[in-house]
Queue: 4 jobs
Job 1
Amino acid sequence: MSALLEATGLTRRYGHVTALDDVSVHLAAGERVAVVGESGSGKSTLARLLLALDTPDAGTVALDGRPVRPGSARSTRWFRRRVQTVPQDPGRSFNPRMRVGDAVAEPLACLRVHGDHSARVAELLVAVGLEPDAARRWPHEFSGGQRQRLAIARALAPRPDVLVADEPVSALDVVVRLQVVELLAQLSAAEGLALLVVSHDLGVVQHLCDRVLVLDAGRVVEQGPVGEVFGAPAHPVTARLLDAVPTLAAVVS
Ligand SMILES: Nc1ncnc2c1ncn2[C@@H]1O[C@H](COP(=O)(O)OP(=O)(O)OP(=O)(O)O)[C@@H](O)[C@H]1O
C-alpha cells in the first residue's frame, strides 16, 4: 500500500531528553493505525510532529510525498485541509461564546474552503449523530460525548483524508467512549478516512485499529497487525501493556 502520510526518521529532543528517536511511520488511505506505549514513551510528541505542530530535530513528515514544515497558517493550509485532529478534552475545545454551528464551520473559514458552510455543518451534525438544529445551540448545552461528536464534526468539515488524534476518547466514560469509537470506525469506513490514534486504552485500539505501533523510550519496538501483536507480543513492553489490562475482553465485548 502506498503511503498517504509518511514520517521518516523523526527525532525530537528536549534538552538532554530524546523524546523520539529515528521513528518512521506510514499511513495508507483508509488505514487505521494505533500508537501505544508507556507514559513518556513519545506518543504525544509523535502526534504533534505528524500534525506539523512541532518541528523535528531530524526527519520529515510528508503528505502524498510533499514535505510539510510547521509554519504560518498560510504555508500549512494545504496540509491542514487534509490532515485534521480531534482533541483529547471535548470540554475545553469549544469557545463557550461561539454557537456550535459557527464552531464546526470554523475550519472551513480558516482554511478558506469554498461552498455553503451552513449546509455542510448541517450534514456533518447528522453524520455524527446529532440533530441539524444543534447548530443554533451553545457548547455548554451538550454532554461530554456529544461535544466529542461535535469536535469530530469540526475535524471532518474540510473533508480531510487523515485524522491524527491523541487520546480522543480518554476523557469520556466507558459507555460513551465505545459509542465515539464506533462513530470513528464508521466514519473512517464510510469516508475512506485514515486514522492515527494515540491511546493508552488497548480495548479502544483493538476495536478501532488495523495496525499498532509500540513505542518505548522514543523508539518503535514492535509493530504489526493488532491481532498479531496483541495475540503474541514480541517485546516485553507490549506484554507489560497487555498485562496491565486484565479486563480487555470485557471492555471491547
Ligand atoms: N515540551 C517538552 N519539554 C520538555 N520535555 C518534554 C516536552 N514534551 C515532552 N517531553 C518529554 O519527552 C518525553 C516524551 O513525552 P510525550 O509526552 O511524547 O510522551 P507520551 O508517551 O505521550 O506520555 P503520556 O502517555 O504520559 O502522555 C517525556 O520524557 C517528556 O517528559
Note: The chain has two domains: 1-71+163-253, 83-159.
Job 2
Amino acid sequence: MTDHAHKPSVSQAEAEAAVRTLIQWAGDNPDREGLLETPKRVAKSYRELFQGYEVEPREYLEKTFEEVGGYDELVVLKNIRFVSFCEHHMLPVVGVAHVGYLPTDRVVGISKLARVVRGFARRLQIQEKMTSDIAHAIQDVLRPHGVGVVIEAEHSCMTMRGVDVPGASLSTSCLLGSVREDPRTREEFLRLVRG
Ligand SMILES: Nc1nc2c(ncn2[C@@H]2O[C@H](COP(=O)(O)OP(=O)(O)OP(=O)(O)O)[C@@H](O)[C@H]2O)c(=O)[nH]1
Ligand SMILES: [Zn+2]
C-alpha cells in the first residue's frame, strides 16, 4: 500500500461521535430530528469520498495491451472530472485532470487513466502532490517515453471561505520524460490539452 494508506483504527461509533461533536461545534443540536441520522450518513459517505485509501492506483495500470498496430503518438484523456479534498481544511477541491502519455510498446485501457485520477483524488491531498502522484504512477508502471498531467481545480477553502475569491482556479502540471524534454512532444501534449 502507499504511504497514505492505513487500516482505519477507529470504529464506526467513534466516527459518528466525532461528527456529532462537529455538529455541535457548528452551532446546531445533534439531537434534533433532522440531524439524528446525520452522523451515520456522514461516516458512511466518508467511506465513499475517501475510497482512495483502499486502493493502490498503480494496480489499475498493470493490465496492458501490446497489439497497438504501430501506434506511436501521444494518448491523451482530457477533462477527467474529479472531487478531492484539501488536506488543510478537508474542503472539496473540484476540477478536471488531463492525462497523457507517449507509449512505448504497451497501451492501457483508457478508463484506467480515469481510475488512477480518482484513486489519488479520493484522499486528503494537495493539488501539486496529486498531479505528481498520477504522473509518477503512470511513469513507473507503463514505462512510456513520457507522461503529462495537467490539473485545473477550484479549492473550496479559497472560494467559499478564507480569502474568498469565487472562480479562482489553480493549474498544476507534471511533465516527465519526452513530454518534458522533447519540445515537439511537449508542444503537442499542451496543444491537445488546450484544444
Ligand atoms: N499549494 C497548495 N496550497 C493549498 C492547496 N489547498 C489549499 N491550500 C492552501 O493551504 C494554505 C493553508 O494555509 P494556512 O495559513 O495554514 O491556513 P488558513 O489560516 O486557513 O489560511 P487561509 O486559507 O488563507 O485562511 C492556504 O493558503 C490554502 O489556500 C493545494 O492543493 N496546494
Ligand atoms: Zn484548503
Note: The longest strand covers residues 75-86.
Job 3
Amino acid sequence: MAVSGFEGFEKRLELHFFGDDPTFIQMGLRKLDFDSLQQVLKAVQCTVVSAVGNAYFDAYVLSESSLFVYPTKIIIKTCGTTQLLKSICPLIYYAHHHLGLTLCSCRYTRGSFIFPMSQPFPHTSFKDEVTYLEETLPANLCYRKASIMPSKSASHSWHVFTATDDSNCQTLYDNGHELYTMEICMTDLDPILARNFFRLPGDEKTGDSAGKEMTELTGICDINPEALICDFAFDPCGYSMNGIDGHRYSTIHVTPEDGFSYASFECTGSFEDDVVYHIMRKVIQIFRPGTMSVSITCSDYSHGMWTRIASAAEAMGLKCRSCTLDEFPAAGGVVFQTFTTRRKK
Ligand SMILES: C[S@+](CC[C@H](N)C(=O)[O-])C[C@H]1O[C@@H](n2cnc3c(N)ncnc32)[C@H](O)[C@@H]1O
C-alpha cells in the first residue's frame, strides 16, 4: 500500500481478439491455462483470490479488483499501485502463440487517482500511459484516440484511450440489442455505511464467508438477484465482488477507509432493459457517496441514457454537476457525468 493510503480508483483494460480457427473461437481466451493467466497477473502485480464461471465467461476476483475472460474479450480492472498496462504484451503473446488469436481492439479507462504521486510507471501520468500504449500496441490497431474528459472539478476527470482495427470487432450485442458498459466511481462514502466493509478483529471467518455476509448485509445481493455472486472480504477491511448473469457481469470494489474511501460499481446492460433506475438507486443507497461519476460506453449514445441516469441520481439526493460526451474512432462514444450530494452530511 502507498504510504499515503490505498488507491481505490481502478485502471481498466478491455482487449478484443479475433481468430480464424472455429475450434479456438468457441472457448478462445477461456482456454488459456491458469499458469499463463498467473504470469499475466504477475506482470500487473496482483493475484487471483476467488473465481467463478458459467457457459459464457469466467470471472476472477483479484487481490486488486477483477478479471473477466470471454472467448474473444478480456477485461482486467486493477486498483492500488498495480501496473495494469504491463499485461498487454503477455496477453497478446499468449493469445497469439497458444490460441491463434489476434488483437483487434483495446480500450483503457480510468478516473483521476487520489494519490497520483504513488503510481509506478507507466501509470505515472496519462501522457506516460498513452505513450506506453502507443508503443506497445500492434500497428493493425490504426484508429487511435486519447482523451481526458473533464468535469467541473479538476480532481474528477475520465481518462480514455482507444485503439481499434477496421473490423468493428468490439461492438457487443445481447439477443440483437446493443450493450453498454457503465462504470460508476464513488468517493467520500457515508462513514457509517462504509463500516459495513470492515471486519471485526479476530472474527475467524474466511475471506469468502465474510464477503458473503457483507453481500447480504449491505443489500448488494439485491442489485441483480439473478446474478451468481463471487465475493471476498479483505482483512481488516475492503470488499470485492463479481456477479455473473448469462453473458453479463457486474462488479463492485470497496475501499472503506476514512479519508480516502472509494467504491466502484460496473456492469454491462442493454438499453432495452429498464434496470438502470433500480441499479442507480440501490448503489447510491448502499454507499451514499459525496461525489459520484458515471461513465457510459456504447457505440451509439443517441438514446439519452444520461437523462435516465441523472434523474435516478437526482431522485436519490445527488445533483448532476457536469455531462461530457466524446467520440472515439471506430470505438463508439463515451458519456461522462459527475454528481455531488445536495446536502452537507
Ligand atoms: C482490493 S479492495 C477493493 C479495490 C477497489 N478498487 C476499491 O478500492 O474500491 C481494496 C481494499 O481492500 C483493502 N485490503 C486489505 N488487504 C488487502 C490486500 N491484501 N490487497 C489489496 N487490498 C487489501 C484495502 O486497504 C482497501 O480498503
Note: The first strand starts at residue 11 and ends at 18.
Job 4
Amino acid sequence: MPSPDEILNAKILVVDDCADNIDLMIEILRDAGYMNVSSTMLPEQVCELHRQHCYDLILLDLQMPELNGFQVMKGLKEIEQDGYLPVLALTAQPSFKIAALEAGARDFISKPFDLLEVHKRIHNMLEVRLLYKELAQYSKKQQELALHDPLTGLPNRRLLEDRIATTLQHAARHNRKAAVMYLDLDGFKPINDTHGHATGDEILKQVAQRLVNSSRKEDTVARVGGDEFVIVLAEVANVASAQEPASKLIEVVSEPYKVGELTLNLSTSIGIALFPDHAQDVNQLIHMADLALYDAKRSGKNRHCVAQLPLAPDALDGATPAVGVGAAQQVTV
Ligand SMILES: Nc1nc2c(ncn2[C@@H]2O[C@H](COP(=O)(O)OP(=O)(O)OP(=O)(O)O)[C@@H](O)[C@H]2O)c(=O)[nH]1
C-alpha cells in the first residue's frame, strides 16, 4: 500500500480554462499537504505535459472552449503506455458524470466543490493509482527475474531462445547468416573444489562481464548452465567472421582472474554453429553448437570448433551417418 508520504508526493496536474478555478483547486490541494502540484489553462498542452511528467493524477475540467475534457482524454488514451488513465473529471454538469466515466475518467468531482468529497476522491484515486504503479513495477521486476540469471544478470535460456528466434527471423528476412557460440569453461570444477563455491561464483561473474565487454551491443550473451554460456552473433558474413570473435573470447577468458588475494587461471572451449548452414531452427542450432563444443573439449579444450555441415544424402551411401557433427573443424588458440 502506498504510504501517506508517497500520496502527498504524487504528481498532480490541474487543467481548467478558468484561472480562479485553478487557484482554488491548487489552494485546496496545498492545504491538504500535496507537494507536487502544477497546472495549465491550455488543454492542448495536457498530452505533451503528461508525456513528459507522467502524472499520477490529472484533475480535468470537462467544459473548456478550445478542446474539451473528452477530447483531452481521447489524446491521453493514445499516449498512456500502461493503459491507466489517471483522470479525475471536474464538472458542473450532472449529465457529464457518466459520460466522463465512459470516456475513461476514473472518477469525477462535482462543481461547486464539496471540500470533503474533493479530499476523499483525490486521496482514494491516488491510493489506487500508486498501488497500480507498484504492481506494474513489481510485475516488470518479476518478468526480468524470470528471464535473467540471478548470479550474473545475463539473459537465461528462456530469453536466449527468444533472442535467437528474433535473430534468425531477421537473418532469414535479409538473407544473412547468424552464429551461435556455445562456451563451457575448462577446469572450473577444481576452482570450486579448491577455493570454494563463493570464489567460483565470483569467477563466473567476472567471466560474464568479460564476455559482455568483448561482444558487440547487438549480440546476446546468456548463461545457460553452471559454467556454460551462449553468445548469439547477428549479421555474420561467414564462418571466419564467427571464428574471429571466438578466438578473441578464448584469449579474454584466459586472462588471469583476481579474487581477493587469489590469482586464478582458466580457459574456455567454444562450439560454433551457423544459421542457416548448420541448422535452421533455434533448438537445433544450439544443439549443433553444443556438439561442436563437445568436439572442442574432446580434442584438448581451450579451442573452438565449428559444427560440420550436414552430409549430402548421396555421401551417406553405405555409411552410418554421424549424429549432428562428425569431425568438426577445430582451431587451437
Ligand atoms: N560456483 C558455482 N559453481 C557452479 C554453479 N553452477 C554449477 N557449478 C559447478 O560448475 C561445475 C561445472 O562442471 P564441469 O563443467 O564438469 O567442470 P569443469 O572442471 O569445467 O569440466 P570441463 O568442462 O571438462 O573442463 C560443477 O562443479 C558445478 O557444481 C554456480 O552457480 N556457482
Note: The longest helix spans residues 115-147.
